[in-house]
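Support request, please re-run this one:
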Amino acid sequence: MTRAFQVAGYDRKGQELFAIAVDAIGPDDAKLVTFRELRTTPGGSAQANAAEKLVAKPMNGRTRGSQIGQADRMTTDPKFQPLVDDLKNWLELEHQKESMKAAGLNSAMDAFRPTADYLEQLGKELENNVDHTISIGQIGRWNEGPDQKFSARYEVKFKGHVCHALNFTVQGRQIRIDDHVFVVGDQTALEETLGRTIVEAIKRESSRR
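Re-run finished. Output below.
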């Protein structure tokens, strides 16, 4: 579902160059739509090129209608047009890639959120009711691999030592935990395997002491 956004462009001094209303899925998409619409507007290519910063804000029910600001009078020298178009198109592709990456990461994190909540709750239960040195936590950030594959690493600690590392991979509708693969939504089976893996790892660490 699309919403109405107002996207404003600013130069490096913070002066507003234009403001345009567009329909888009979200703020990042609104910026991409703005670039496309500016290309069809007289002087719009120059405006897009001059803008150092874009700010997209929901219009909260206001009707959509483009309004171009004071930069309408800007034109591109014909001898620079190929260079301007080349860089503009390249930057637009980069923006699209970043938007796709952000959308993929958000989707992966949404799919993983019930598992993240389970790990947090299990860690608290074991820490409060078994041993205060037990902890379960994510190490570092999410990483992106090929084919929209996102991974995260968790570590289980007991008495100051890492007794098990959990490597999670989310791709499409699948969540992989080490060698185990689960369909997103099959949370009961995932949690049973995950909980047993963690408890057994702590047992092994304790038996070595």
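The chain is about 45% helix and 30% strand. The two ends are 57 Å apart (CA to CA).
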